[in-house]
Write a structure and sequence with these properties.
The protein has 215 residues and is an alpha/beta fold. Helices cover 30% and strands 10% of the residues. The chain has a three-stranded parallel beta sheet, covered by helices on one side. α1 links the parallel β1 and β2.
Amino acid sequence: MLVTTAYLGNIQYFGKLAAGARIEAHENFQKQTYRNRAEVMTAAGVRTLSVPVEWDHRTKMPIRAVRIDYKLPWQREHWRTLQAAYSAAPYFDHYAEKLAPFYDSAYRPQTLWQLNEALTRLLLELFGLPDTLRFTEAYRPPVPPDEAVRAGDFREVISHKPRLKRPDPTFSAPEYYQVFADRIPFAPNLSAVDLLFCEGPGAGRIIRESVAARE
């Protein structure tokens, strides 16, 4: 199986990693994807957090070379959003100290790849899932969209873009308690930090159970 790098990947993404997916390390950056954005639940509904990057739209940029743009105070904004969204979540206080250093202005990884890898490894640890991150050794061209799931190519299937989404019989989006359940309908498959803050030690089990056996 193949997936892309992801910022605070969603539940489906971590399910693929738990099942042994490799992360594509030789592609070019694509904008408006989960490579540098994540979706979380706030009092106003689902909100997208985006990591700004320095990217020349006229050239192709290898994913591991994409630099983070620190001219914008994105770390402060993201952390404030996470605090406002999840301070009332059952397990926020338990895990906040683990994530907070990534949003301190003193922490300045140069590239999006470095940030994503560090956060992904931390989340795997907090979920109690094995850190078996594996990366491709060479670029593999994508298969046609209608064949992607069958071929195990989830690089674009795990997408917030409706035109790219495909049914995934290997994943069943779990339902669980969300912070604003009394006023906002349940939103499936958000960033896995939503599951972590709401379900705590049970999050890893829920991720494993969301992965259906492939035929």
